[in-house]
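Backbone-to-sequence.
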């Protein structure tokens, strides 16, 4: 179910006042930075609570016990920064924000520092910076065939894959199975019925 604004997000997630304040600060910094570099489509900002915040936060319901996450191609901070904000009060939590573009990493680091998040920003290629985490995630990074290549080192270390995809997810999975063997589940996104959440396990290259 999509949500309309901050109040609806708080009601749906039971976010604390502190979490809501951090999310609003993040939105403010994103809006300011987006004016000088392309982090998100400007047309999506009026619907930021549903399109970006809720879209990201819903992943916590799919892995409620996960403490450590790696966000590949973290970009504007979705879903990684939102996850770090929602997990901030959890002592053993940590989120790795991995992106290959320096200016995006500088933005992410500013947000992490400003909000004192339990997060580490890594400027580099996702497949070359594998860390051991409970979940590896990504949004709007690459088609599934290529994305699974980026995520392979994390999945081989025991991570679950949770990937936010669009309405072509089913087609992407068919193409990916030409290169990879894996177990997967497909769920309808709660922020947009056209979107999908792809859960991946047991990844290996097809012979």
């Amino acid at each position: 179910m999509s949500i309309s604004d901050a109040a609806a997000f708080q009601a749906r997630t039971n976010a604390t006042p502190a979490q809501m304040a951090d999310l609003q600060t993040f939105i403010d910094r994103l809006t300011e930075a987006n004016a000088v570099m392309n982090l998100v489509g400007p047309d999506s900002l009026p619907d930021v609570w549903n399109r970006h915040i809720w879209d990201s936060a819903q992943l916590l319901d799919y892995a409620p016990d996960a403490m450590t996450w790696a966000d590949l191609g973290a970009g504007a901070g979705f879903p990684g920064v939102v996850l770090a904000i929602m997990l901030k009060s959890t002592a053993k939590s940590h989120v790795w924000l991995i992106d290959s573009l320096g200016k995006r990493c500088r933005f992410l680091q500013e947000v992490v520092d400003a909000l004192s998040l339990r997060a580490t920003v890594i400027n580099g290629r996702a497949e070359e910076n594998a860390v051991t985490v409970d979940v590896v995630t990504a949004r709007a990074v690459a088609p599934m065939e290529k994305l699974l290549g980026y995520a392979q080192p994390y999945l081989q270390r025991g991570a679950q894959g949770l990937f936010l995809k669009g309405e072509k997810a089913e087609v992407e999975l068919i193409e990916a199975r030409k290169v990879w063997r894996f177990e997967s589940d497909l769920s309808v996104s709660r922020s947009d019925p056209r979107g999908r959440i792809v859960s991946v396990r047991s990844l290996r290259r097809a012979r």
